């Protein structure tokens, strides 16, 4: 399997605080990797660095063999291939659900509206919201909004989907529908890097689980290994707290 | 409102209006002031004009105010947006323009508009710098209004753009939208909706400030009233001009308040998400 994206010894500081302290991660085609760790461990920052929403201080980010820290790289072009979904959905409140999904393909990729619209409707059909296509996001529940946000990213047909604690802002009763969609995507072969606090989901869906602690990768392995036989004391302590 | 409250508020309003009218009516020199400012005959002549006595119709002159502010409003909206955009741009190469935009808004919000009017209206023609010094007074007047009000409106736009949450920008960027597309498709539509009431507020001021351009010799409503006053020794023209301005600004003020109230209700209703 070929590597789609990799972080190589990435360091990131906010002022005096070093949030990422030499992180290296590879993500292969069709692989699903879950990032776990306490809040503030650097999960979100890593994801944002990967699609260039944050600049890194040291190290490199390589996408399909191309270094993204090269000054000649246009971040806007990169982000068409590496899409991120946020904890707070960040749907565009002034656009209908359908227009939210269509905005990227039509404006950033310059694809014809009719074609994009058909695809967008198919995606909305898939999450059972086709009949709500013309409504505004604030008419939908949190779970529905987050599923629209995921589909909005998918409409760009990204090479990698980054998911930043996408269920953390949701009412517990709405978490399931979002995780079901992600499970569905994982089975369909979407390459995903998922920062999450949902340990059962990680155990069932991830090919690999990475435990981040204070900006460093403490441990990485299969879900069975991480959850059942954590080698590091910090991993064990974290898991005993969340379970 | 209950019946008792309605009766009480009507009575107190009537009482206060009555007291004010009574005060001015009974003032020692009240009759004199009424003659100078509220003379019915002068009122009519001011409204319709009298060419045989070289007196302007203030109503006709008011048309100048109306088209001036309509033209200036459009230009201010465009120019102000440009200023705000420059100010918020992060492109390194635009840094000098960003600073220039900041200085511009500080300077023109800080100078009384009448002084800008003098500087532009007398200074620019005085320079004898060719084409730009050979425009009509009304062009200089419009330029002054646009220059000054763009500074105010730029700040309003900027506040609106800043009110759009950063998550919206990140979402737009993560879809691969360029900076210009992010501004045009995501930030501006939300920003403008947030600032329509303050924008309309500035437009009410702009409408009123068209009354200042008479100092350049342009015969608009206020200047026409001034001419009448100096020829007939009667100031009823100013009352006419004031009423005409009110006829224009009051509907706009009411409409602005209506929008503010509507927006408030919308926010309260949908504030959860």
Strand % of chain A is 25-35%
Distance between the termini of chain B: 33 Å
Judging from the principal axes of the Cα atoms, what is the shape of chain A? Answer: globular
Gyration radius of chain B, rounded: 24 Å
Written description of the protein model:
The complex is a heterodimer of chains A (243) and B (273). By secondary structure, chain A is an alpha/beta fold. Chain A has a single domain, classed as Rossmann fold (3-Layer(aba) Sandwich), CATH 3.40.50. Chain A has helices at 43-50, 75-79, 97-108, 113-126, 142-154, 172-187, 199-205, 223-228, 233-242, and strands at 3-14, 17-28, 32-36, 58-63, 66-67, 82-85, 160-164, 192-195, 208-213, 216-221. In chain A, a hairpin with a 2-residue loop joins strand 4 (58-63) and strand 5 (66-67). In chain A, helix 3 crosses helix 4 and helix 3 runs parallel beside helix 5. The longest helix of chain A is centred in the C-terminal third of the chain and has 16 residues, at 172-187. Chain A is globular, with a radius of gyration of 18 Å. Chain B has 273 residues and is mainly α. Chain B has one domain: MetI-like (MetI-like fold, Orthogonal Bundle). Chain B is built from 11 helices and no strands. Chain B has helices spanning 3-26, 30-37, 40-48, 58-88, 95-110, 113-126, 137-162, 166-174, 179-209, 221-232, 236-270. Chain B is flat. The two termini of chain B are 33 Å apart. The relative contact order of chain B is 0.12. The A-B interface holds A 51, 53, 75-77, 79-80, 83-84, 86, 88, 90-94, 103-104, 107-109, 137-138, 142, 145, 149, 152-153, 156 and B 165, 167-168, 170-179, 181, 185-186, 189-190, 193, 270, 273.
């Amino acid at each position: 399997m070929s590597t789609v994206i990799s972080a190589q010894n990435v360091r990131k500081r906010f002022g005096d605080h070093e949030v990422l302290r030499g992180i290296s991660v590879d993500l292969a085609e069709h692989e699903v990797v879950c990032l776990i760790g306490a809040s503030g461990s650097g999960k979100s920052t890593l994801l944002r660095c990967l699609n260039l929403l944050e600049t890194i201080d040291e190290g490199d980010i390589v996408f399909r063999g191309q270094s993204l820290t090269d000054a000649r790289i246009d971040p806007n072009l990169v982000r068409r291939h590496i899409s991120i979904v946020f904890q707070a959905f960040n749907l565009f409140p002034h656009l209908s659900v359908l227009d939210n999904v269509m905005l990227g393909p039509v404006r950033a990729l310059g694809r014809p509206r009719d074609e994009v619209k058909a695809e967008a409707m198919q995606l909305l059909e898939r999450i059972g919201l086709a009949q709500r296509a013309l409504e505004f996001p604030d008419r939908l529940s949190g779970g529905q909004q987050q599923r629209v946000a995921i589909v909005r990213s998918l409409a760009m047909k990204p090479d990698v989907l980054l998911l930043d604690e996408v269920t953390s802002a949701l009412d517990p009763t709405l978490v399931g529908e979002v995780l079901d969609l992600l499970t569905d995507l994982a089975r369909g072969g979407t390459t995903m890097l998922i920062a999450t606090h949902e340990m059962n989901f990680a155990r069932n869906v991830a090919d690999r689980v990475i435990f981040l602690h204070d900006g460093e990768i403490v441990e990485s392995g299969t879900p069975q290994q991480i959850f059942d036989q954590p080698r590091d004391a910090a991993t064990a302590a974290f898991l005993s707290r969340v379970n | 409102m209950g019946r008792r409250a309605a009766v009480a508020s009507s009575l107190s309003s009537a009482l206060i209006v009555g007291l004010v009218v009574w005060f001015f009516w009974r003032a020692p020199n009240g009759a004199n002031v009424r003659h100078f400012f509220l003379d019915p005959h002068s009122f009519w002549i001011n409204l319709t004009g009298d060419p045989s006595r070289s007196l302007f119709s203030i109503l006709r002159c008011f048309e100048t105010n109306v088209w001036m502010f309509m033209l200036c409003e459009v230009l201010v909206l465009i120019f102000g947006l440009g200023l705000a955009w420059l100010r918020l741009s992060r492109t390194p190469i635009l840094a000098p323009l960003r600073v220039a935009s900041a200085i511009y808004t500080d300077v023109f919000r800080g100078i009384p508009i009448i002084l800008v009017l003098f500087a532009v209206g007398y200074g620019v023609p005085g320079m004898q710098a060719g084409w730009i010094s050979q425009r009509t007074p009304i062009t200089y007047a419009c330029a002054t209004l646009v220059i000054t009000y763009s500074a105010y409106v730029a700040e309003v736009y900027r506040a609106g753009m800043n009110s759009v949450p950063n998550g919206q920008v990140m979402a737009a960027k993560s879809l691969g939208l360029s900076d210009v597309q992010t501004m045009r498709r995501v930030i501006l539509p939300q920003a403008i909706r947030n600032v329509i009431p303050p924008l309309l507020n500035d437009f009410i001021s702009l409408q009123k400030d068209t009354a200042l351009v008479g100092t350049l010799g342009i015969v608009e409503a206020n200047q026409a009233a001034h001419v009448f006053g100096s020829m007939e020794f009667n100031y009823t023209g100013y009352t006419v001009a004031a009423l005409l301005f009110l006829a224009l600004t009051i509907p706009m003020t009411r409409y602005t308040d209506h929008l503010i109230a509507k927006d408030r209700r919308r926010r309260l209703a949908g504030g959860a998400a």
